[in-house]
Specification:
- There is one protein chain.
- With about 775 residues, the protein is an alpha+beta fold.
- The strands form nine sheets. A nine-stranded antiparallel sheet has the order 3-5-4-6-12-11-8-7-13. Strands 28, 29, 32, 33, 34, 35, 36, 37 and 38 form a nine-stranded mixed sheet that branches.
- The longest helix has 18 residues, at about 630-645.
- The radius of gyration is 37 Å and the shape is elongated.
- The model is unreliable at about 1-30, about 30-80 and about 430-435 (pLDDT under 50).
Length: about 775
Amino acid sequence: MTKDLYRNTEKKEKTVLTKKRKRIIGIAALGLLLATCGAPSESVDGNPDGWEDSGAGDGVYLGRFPAEGDMGEGPQSPETKEEPKEWPKEHDGCRVQELGGYLYEYTPVSPYASAEISIKDYEGEKLETGWDEPSAFRFAGEADITWQFYDSLMEMETALNEAARQETDGDALDFLYYTFPMTQNDHALDLYHMLKTEYDTKEHSLTAWGIDNGKMFGFMQETVKEEDGYELTYLYSRCSKVNLYVKDGTAFGLTLLNMPPESDDETLEYVFEDTFQRYGEYGTGWGLDEENLYWIDHDERLTELENPKRSFREVRGIDKNWEFVVDEGFMCYFGLLLEADYELPLTADGRMLSLHFSLAENEDTKLRYYLLNGFCSEEPYDMTVADMETGEVLQERRVSLSIELPDTITYLDLNGDGYADMRVGAPVHVNGAKAVEEDYRSPSYLLWDPQTEQFERKSEKEVANSRQAVANGLTEEEQEEKTKRERRDPFALVQKLPEGAEPEDYIKLTGDGMLEYEVQEGDCLWRISERLCGSGYEWTAIVRAEDSPKDPDYLLAGETVLVPEIFYIRKDPLSMGGLRSEGSFQIEQPYGFAHYFLDGDVTYAFWEEENQIHSLPVTNPIEENPFHGPEEWEAFQAEAVRCSEALCPGKVSNLTFEKYHMEDGCDLYGYAFEYDTGEEILEYVDFFKFGKANMSEVIGVREQEPNTVLVNTVRYMAASFTDYGGEPGMGWGDDAGPNVGADKWDYPYLHNLFEAAREEFQTPGRE
């Protein structure tokens, strides 16, 4: 037993303790539960610590019960208080196989009742059932049952603690079943906190569950055991003592009193499962978090916070579309934000604004139904913005928001103009909890316009444009036009960095070609490399004539040297961050392009955005760079030419290839071609890069246009791929199908775009 249950005893007393009936967590849990019902009472015999000495050194914890008049019925005077009744004990019995039904159907003469159950001479077995069927048992043996009834919770606790100190028959299984009514002052969340504080451990964690489709909830102490290298969880272990359930305002529990041999585990499982399954569909339910537990027995909540000062009033909402529950179950209830008030400074040294949101009632909400299978929909709220100093109302409008949780709205200077703006999150329920909003829906924004003194709803793209406009000192219209001009070909290769440009804002590529340079007076290899290659450390790549002086610091004016061809790609300042796997890889996703994961199929959908890009980093299946040598790259080019002629005769034109070396030690490869569908010309572009653990292939498809925006963008995305050498793949790409056309050429780890085009536009029956 844990130290929470017993006082320390001398080693010589341990043998005595094993022969006594163990005091159980379930009884202590009962005391904690009942302690929530009104004001606390004094402990038995005036002991301020709630401990009573049994005379054998095993103190029994007595939970503090409320007085009889504190059970939600108001105080009772001595004149009106009823005299205690004399409840006779009742002795009964039944077969082990019938015990669950007996307890469920039995009607105690008092709402406060307990039954000591002793099972002797039990024999039985667990029957074979299907994996999707409940466990089944067959048992012989008899159960002796002794009922005892009480006038109050305090009397019940005293009797239960007394019974827990009695010695037991070592050949029997001994249980305690108890039941009592809950009051209006008993709250599920308070009980959860007390039980968790008292009994939750790593080995025996306390969990809360909604059972029978939300019509019953319960607390149980699980037991975690390691078997064959796996952690397994048991609900009805000999060490899992808390089994307390509530249904229809009545609490009931079943606790094992003694410690039987492990060979009796099947009997224990039968007794627990058979007893509790009588109260509802025990196998159907969900784990409950604190948010669920709160709304089980509350209809409203008021939350007040500071910095900025804000308050939220929530009411009970019901998800009418929740698939597995009906109105009488509590799993369909959530906290719906009815009103929200904010007081915030518009600027650091400016005036104070007050913002009030109130849920607008209509035929769809009625404060009752508002969710859609756990996904928060945008609700209509009436927003009022006022000047707190003058009381002037600056704005009144209806806005569509998803703010069923406090602090979904945050106030940030989103565009850098010095005024507070509004970011509205998109919370999602996952069994009552808030999920990562970006997994489901992007946030919305309201920017403050200091000219009109109102909040205006903006898209994420418009917020980014406003931020750029403020930074550049332009109007939003001027910035939008500037952005359009820049994004016509944002990732074009340049051979020289613009004046004042920062090297870290660019990706550097080195081509296979060499450029001639005539040495000027005062030149050295370091200065030439610094000027033409972006870094003096590249001087070793400069090639001199064989008859030139060997001293790298001595160059002749007029001498011709060969410098590697250098290119730069500007990094996207509006990048959306791209696809990242912590410690494994990262790849950019440029703003303004439709992005799709590669799943084995590369198609062109004319109704989608015109810039369609497919990518997905995956594990490098060959664990090397297969094209590093010039022979391997030439062989790939020859194979691509063969596929274009064999698979797409007369359809492919302008087939080109590119290869670059990169500072991270990887090489970048790509090919592009134009494909004639018979109705239009499409561009196909493919760039790929190999890392030690992962590789990335980026593919672009679009209708032909008189510029190279698609080629440059695909090249940029592939060049931005970084392999950190972490765990390969990290789960990405595991579900992808085989690469299209993998069996049509010698490179199955790459998509065959010639076969992709042929399948889409030449295969009979395909549209």
